[in-house]
Design a protein that fits this description.
2 helices; alpha+beta; three-stranded antiparallel β-sheet
Length: 130
């Protein structure tokens, strides 16, 4: 029988979940750490948390072809930046951006640019309760 490790429990990432929940509502959110190592560690923990949630959800799809697990946090792009906001792997800040399409959408019939509506909240319940 294998031992359960703390890092395999979503409860071990409550701090990460709090920050990532804020980042879902506030694209461009910056999380400033006291050291570069702290920023690297926090980013790694964010990615481990996302992977853990995917693994847990994937168990529900076991044996169903074509089904892939996803989390609300998959929209987040986490980059390390310096104090001036430039991408820098030696920066002590993390910026949480949203993965968005940056190109133009053109209607094939009219040739006019189409404008996408605002993205709805991806947290689910409008009260912010899961």
């Amino acid at each position: 029988m294998s031992k359960s490790k703390k890092r395999n429990s979503p409860a071990a990432y409550s701090d990460v979940k709090t920050i990532m929940d804020f980042a879902l509502q506030k694209p461009g959110l910056i999380y400033e750490c006291s050291t570069v190592g702290g920023a690297v560690n926090f980013k790694q923990r964010c990615n481990r948390y996302r992977n853990l949630l995917r693994e847990i959800q994937q168990e529900q799809f076991f044996g169903i072809p074509g089904q892939r697990a996803e989390t609300a946090y998959d929209v987040l792009v986490i980059r390390q930046i310096d104090a001036e906001g430039n991408p820098n792997r030696r920066g002590a800040r993390l910026v949480f951006d949203h993965e968005i399409a940056t190109g133009r959408l053109i209607d094939p019939d009219t040739g006019e640019e189409l404008h996408l509506p605002e993205m709805p909240s991806i947290l689910g319940d409008p009260d912010g309760q899961d």
